[in-house]
Amino acid sequence: MEPAYPLDDVRHAAELDNFLLGGRRARDHLLQFFDTLLEARAFVREVAMGLTEDDFIQQVKGMEGGPFDEYGVVLHEEVAQRFGIVNERTWYIKLKLEKSAGRELFFLSFHRPERRLARRGGPIDP
Amino acid sequence: MRRSEPGTRAYRNMERLPVPSVELPVCSQCGEEWLDKEATERLHDALEGAYAKALHKRAEWALDLLQKAIPQRELERLLGLSVGYLSKLRAGKKTSASLTAALLLLAKDTSRIQELRELFDAPGWVFCAKHYKMPNEPSVETPSMQLPVPTAEFSVSAIPVVAVEANDNTEELVVRLEATAA
């Protein structure tokens, strides 16, 4: 199964900082790892810009507001060092792109995985 | 857009930081708050402002208590601050969490002012031993001396703790400890 949203569009929206991070729960989760929201947002942007086909898990249909694409990421060493993420190297992402004036990227989930993620490039564990 | 509810939230090292309401984009269908770049910056400014205010309030409270126990200039010197720093802090200068922490701990128990003086005055080798005692301290560990001390590569781990405690030859021990601290 292919992603619902082209990865190039996802990476481009992230590069333009044209994304929205949803939910107080998501923010509170990220603030466990970063001192400020600005740092957390910079991290989200960096990781999204580096998404690859290997990170893709599946397209999720049937949920209200969908479809959504799920990704599982293992942080590159350089990114982990730069953001001070020493041990928390795996992250789960659920996103969608909406067509508006410029394509807007929505991160519905951006958190540590709670279970094994079966990615195209191989499984990753929390 | 709507204004978030004022309330408290966990932020940095505070579990219940009072936070003012902030205008945030909200999904018209699900009611969820979505942070774009501008909203993130607004919320960030609100959180940082609230945090700075909370730190300042605690620092001022601590300084009010400390001024009865130690002259301000002496406190500045003890904490490694420049002359007049605490006056500027009282006047609104931004303070750090680490300085606020030190002020709070000293204000809560002003007897620790003298303890801090002694720690800064202690010879270097005291901070190399796994279990240390200050010069002239009794051999029994007192609760006030049970401070975590990082063991470095040059610590006395080569000398068994039992041997350290049982060693009556303090002259020899000092020489050996100073040799490892060098």
Describe this structure in a few short sentences.
The complex is a heterodimer of chains A (126) and B (182). Chain A contains four helices and five strands; from the N terminus they run αβααββαββ. Chain A has helices at residues 7-15, 24-30, 37-49, 77-83, and strands at residues 19-22, 56-60, 68-74, 90-98, 104-111.
Key features?
heterodimer, A: 126 residues, alpha+beta, YaeB-like fold, five-stranded mixed β-sheet, 4 helices, 5 strands, 29% helix, B: 182 residues, mainly alpha, 2 domains, two-stranded antiparallel sheet, two-stranded antiparallel ribbon, 7 helices
What does this structure look like?
The complex is a heterodimer of chains A (126) and B (182). Chain A is α+β, with helices and mostly antiparallel strands. Chain A has a single domain, classed as YaeB-like fold (2-Layer Sandwich), CATH 3.30.2310.40. In chain A, strand 4 and strand 5 form a beta hairpin. The two termini of chain A are 24 Å apart. Chain B is built from seven helices and five strands; from the N terminus they run βββββααααααα. In chain B, helix 1 runs parallel beside helix 4. Helix content of chain B is 46%, strand content 9%. At the A-B interface, strand 1, helix 2 and helix 3 of A face strand 2, strand 5 and helix 1 of B.
